[in-house]
Amino acid sequence: MRHVSAMALEVEYSLRYFPNAQMLRAGFAPDAGLSLEDTLEVRRNKLIELFMRTFLRESDIFPLGPRFGFMANGGRSYLDRQIFEMATAECSNPRDVACRHVANEALLIPQIAAMNERLARGGFPGFPNGRIEISKKTSNFRGDDSYGCHENYQVRRFEPRSAELFKETRRRLLRPFAPFLISRQPFIGAGNLTNKGEFVVSPRGMMTNTVIAGSAGRAHGQTPLAFIRRDGDVNTERSSSSDVCEADYARLQVCCSDGNVSDRQTEFKLGTTAIVLRMIEEGYLASPPVHLADRREAMQAVARDTTLTERLPTRSGDAVTALELNRLYFLKARRFFEINPMHGWEAGIMALWEEWFRKLAHNPAALDTVLDWRILFRFVEFELERKFRLTLRELKEKLADPRDEESRNAALPILRELQWKILNYFFISDARFREALVALGMVDEGLLSPQGMVGAVERLIPPADTRASWRSWLMRFFRSRGLETSVSNIGWGLIQFLNGSNELVQFTNEDPLNASYCAERNAPLSDELLLGIVNR
Fold first, then answer.
1. What is the distance between the alpha carbons of residues 296 and 292, in angstroms, rounded to a whole number?
2. Do 261 and 446 meet the contact criterion of CB atoms below 8 Å apart?
3. Of 419, 446, 473, at which residue does a domain stop?
4. Which one of 6, 72, 113, 266 has the largest count of C-beta atoms within 10 Å of its C-beta?
């Protein structure tokens, strides 16, 4: 049986626009009927469209309209409801995904600099001076919306191809899978400080308000743990291929995931999740080790538990902590690999899983410089004590006391300063705050120049063992011959173009692990093959 083998990551980014003090003094007033923050939000939406157009034009991207395009490395950039998103190519292992995610962000840095130079020259009407930054910050300025990342996994379908609904796949996959997603938050949280002065482990987990939803649920504002797409694609947008729904594999999209600065956390969450999905697919994990009484409440409880001691009620009347629950999944995986072969990267992930569990269970401070939420939690406590002689609990109490308006007004600037510094941690191009944390010994220096960033240039080519190579080869073929205008559509597993007789030709690739084979011609891709079709 083929186990989960293709995976990818999409990350949502927030474009932040910062008018300088001179602009505000010169009359950068709120738009009619809007607050200053709402005015900045409206103008930000205009700027992000300008940024997207510039990015598509000046980067090595095959544009498909003004809002999205495929990159040379096999990934995709696009605007989704005014949120800038980047997706990695399909990959066969978690380290590859983490490295290509970092390489994607390396593409943003020169574009952010170019945009700021143009803003400084007054190159955008309505935006005199000021600057922008792109951030993986996981909530907006109001705290009522979240930016995170979606993990995508290729999973086997458990019902006939013609099934209209994925009821059997949902039942067999998600029943044993959902508690694992709840338990992994202490390992993968990005951390945040809320407007109430509460530090949370996982901002995305805090906003998860349903266990499972389809596309319609998301359209109505639900943030689910995960959902299964009808298509067979593991990436971030539904494939344009009309017959992808007939594939033997579906795409499982995990939605309750933060955007991490730590590439080690990115690799960890993809690797451990793929292992758990493999056990489910192969029938080894048919039910969860523990049945939680309320999965939604458990998700949010773990997301806010910085002590790692919150006990989650079970249906049997007992209770477990997130770490105890996660340990049960680890032990299950270890027994699974005693009777099943490991595939390449799985041994390294199992070793990392055991190491991180041991540290979080017995000495969480051992991961204070590695995990995003531990880094930021430690910084907030340090800064409150050093600068304001306060504890986090005292700050929260001052913000919560409605009877003492003076204390609340004094606490609000402290809260905003800390939130601003946390936002700086997630900036893509401006690394000064992270560098300051390194100097203080609060961040592992390797996180600033991770293995993926060191090899970012070479990682601008697509993975050689997945469909991304097939797609990028076709894009390079048409671009190198000046035939971009003949291409009418590109999807994750589809390309349509006009040949020399003005006939529409379509190539499809339903298999994320098919790197070079042309199914329509029953032959490997080659210049000779394509030239014969294009010139016909």
1. 10
2. no
3. 446
4. 266
Entry field: residues in the chain = 536
For residue 307, the one-letter residue type is: T
Residue 303 forms part of a structural domain: no
In a domain, residue 355? The reply is no
Domain that holds residue 392: 372-446
- Confirm whether 419 is domain-assigned: yes
| 442 and 487 both lie in a single domain | no
Q: Tens of pLDDT along 364-387? A: 999 999 999 999 999 999 999 999
Region for residue 4 given its phi and psi (left: phi exceeds 0; alpha: psi -120 to 50; beta: otherwise) = beta
Helix/strand/coil for 501: coil
3-state SS, residue 528: helix
Q: 320-345 burial, b for 16+ CB within 10 Å, e for fewer?
A: bbbbbbbbbbbebbeebbeeeeebeb
Residues 432 and 475 in one domain: no
List pLDDT tens digits, range 84-128.
899 999 999 999 999 889 888 988 998 999 988 888 887 777 666
Rounded Cα distance, 274 and 349, in Å? 10
Q: Would you say the pTM of this structure is higher than 0.85?
A: yes
3-state helix, strand, coil in the chain (%, to 5): 45, 15, 35
Structural domains in the chain (count): 2
Asked, for residue 441, whether it belongs to a domain, the answer is yes
Same domain, yes or no, for 379 and 439? Answer: yes
368-407 CB burial, b ≥16 within 10 A, e <16: bbbbbbbbbbbbbeeebeeebebebeebbebbeeeeeeee
392 and 429 co-located in one domain:
yes
